[in-house]
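Re: the 167-residue chain
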Amino acid sequence: MKTLLIIYHSITGGSKAMAQALAAGAGEEMDAEAGTKTLLLHASEATEQHVLQADGYVFVAPETLGSMAGLMKDFFDRTYYPVLNNINGRPYTVLVCAGSDGYGAVKQIQRIATGWRLNLIAEPIVVCTHAQTPGDILTQKIINPGDLERCHELGAAFANGLAMGLF
C-alpha cells in the first residue's frame, strides 16, 4: 500500500488550509485497488514510524521570522536521525505560507530533505499573505481560492504519481 504523508504546522490557519487542500486533492485520487492512501498529520503528532512507513512526503509550514516555524523544526529534530538512511530516494515537496517571500523556510526544509536523500518532485508552493504588521501577522489567514487550487492539484498529481509508480 502506497502512503502519501502530509506533515503540517500552522499558527494562523494558512498552512493548515494549504495542507487540507493538498490532502483533499490527494484523497480524490485514492485508489483502493492500487492501495494508495493519504495521511494528514500535525507536526506534533508525526513520528519516525509515520515517516518510515510512508512512500512520499509533503512538508507544509508557516515561515516565522524568516525560518520554518518551531514546531515543524521540532518534528525534524525528533525524526531526522531515527530515519536517516532508511528513506533514501523517496519523493517529497514543500508548501509554505509566509508574510513575505517564504524562501527561508523552503531552504531549511530542502536542506533537511537533502540530508535524508529525498527527491524533490515538484517545485515548492509558497503563498505570500503580505502580512507585515504585528496585527496582520497574528490574524487568522484566509488563503485565496487560486492558491488553494494549486495545492489541491499538487495533491492529486502526487497521489497519482505514487499510485502509478512514477516516483
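The longest helix spans residues 145-164.
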